[in-house]
């Protein structure tokens, strides 16, 4: 019943039913995990974290629970706790690229570029057909000053997902960084054609 209420957007009644379900069975990780998702949907992050921590006590080897808890910490801006949760998820499921991507993003945000590069390369190995991982590697390389490496990675991202305006704009920025303004302008125009409302692409074209 809690799931049914949640599916129709009635989170208040869903919360009540999930609380009742957990009180009846305090060994099943599914019920506190559901409570965590409901609290998160209600923007009650403190209660969501507590619920997920209970769920993890019941199912400590469930990588998805650690990852979902990491997402909440991420939203809170608690990078250290988020990193710990995603690292635990990654150790439980080392072949899941999602967790490696999350760890890379946190390292990039913390300007830990050598470590971020290693993980970004691992993400590419795990999911070579996913444009997002090539784009992420490109972002790390760009931040490290390897602009040609960044262009190569982000061009591959764009090849895999040719409708992604963000990838085209990132390629444009790479070309600008190495002084190839003509190619930068061309890719900026492509980004804007893919997403005419993209304000960053508009500002980029004004600059070049």
Write the layout of secondary structure elements.
Layout: H1 2-7, H2 11-24, H3 30-41, H4 45-58, H5 63-76, H6 79-92, H7 97-109, H8 113-126, H9 131-143, H10 147-160, H11 165-177, H12 181-194, H13 199-207
Helix pairs in contact: 2-3, 3-4, 4-5, 5-6, 6-7, 7-8, 7-9, 8-9, 9-10, 10-11, 11-12, 12-13
Describe the protein in words.
With 208 residues, this protein is mainly α. Helix content is 79%, strand content 0%. The protein contains 13 helices and no strands. The protein has helices at residues 2-7, 11-24, 30-41, 45-58, 63-76, 79-92, 97-109, 113-126, 131-143, 147-160, 165-177, 181-194, 199-207.
What's the overall geometry? elongated
- What is the alpha-carbon Rg in Å? 21 Å
Determine the fraction of residues in helical runs and give it as a percent range. Answer: over 70%
Q: Number of DSSP helices? A: 13
Task: Give me a quick take on this structure.
This protein has 208 residues and is mainly alpha-helical. Helix content is 79%, strand content 0%.
